[in-house]
């Protein structure tokens, strides 16, 4: 299957910003206690469900992957950007990081106990989300868990610069009800939501949805 055309712009843009992104994103993550709380609940539920691996898809420089491992899950990272993966491997040499795309995961059916997509569906056109969520469903084991975070809204953004560099990707704000419906169509049931309203440190509302694949699918 041919690679979706938008992925080239995402890959090139994140290769360009990688060194500056890593100076900012991990610090923001350390300040986000509510989101880390969702990850802690996710990790506890994954462990209660067995010891299958957890994929951090769109892992960037690897800080969320490392955090998942600190919570006791066997997490590994996948990212579209080779430069991000290189940084992750250098920063966390004992962990696994692979270059890959959420649209075509190089993983067997039913392999994963969990998937984290931490603000990494941001650049996927909404019409392509069924392909991504279909891959999530395919690679999750029955009863496997998904945690997806995203910026809330109904806008198509075309930033020209990010993290001090020119970028060529598009970005999409999503409505939680729309994401929940797409997950339902893909065979997953949302079991929890976290909504964060804008604040001094948060420009836009954000959402985390936790979903579970049916035991019988």
Automatic annotation (TrEMBL):
Keywords recorded for this protein, A-Z: Methyltransferase, Transferase
Example GO biological process: methylation
Protein name (record): Class I SAM-dependent DNA methyltransferase
Superkingdom in the source lineage: Bacteria
Gene3D superfamilies, sorted: Vaccinia Virus protein VP39
Record-linked Pfam families: Methyltransf_25
Methyltransferase domain ranges (all copies): 54-144
Keyword hit for Zinc-finger: no
MF terms in GO: methyltransferase activity
Cross-referenced InterPro entries: Methyltransf_25, SAM-dependent_MTases_sf
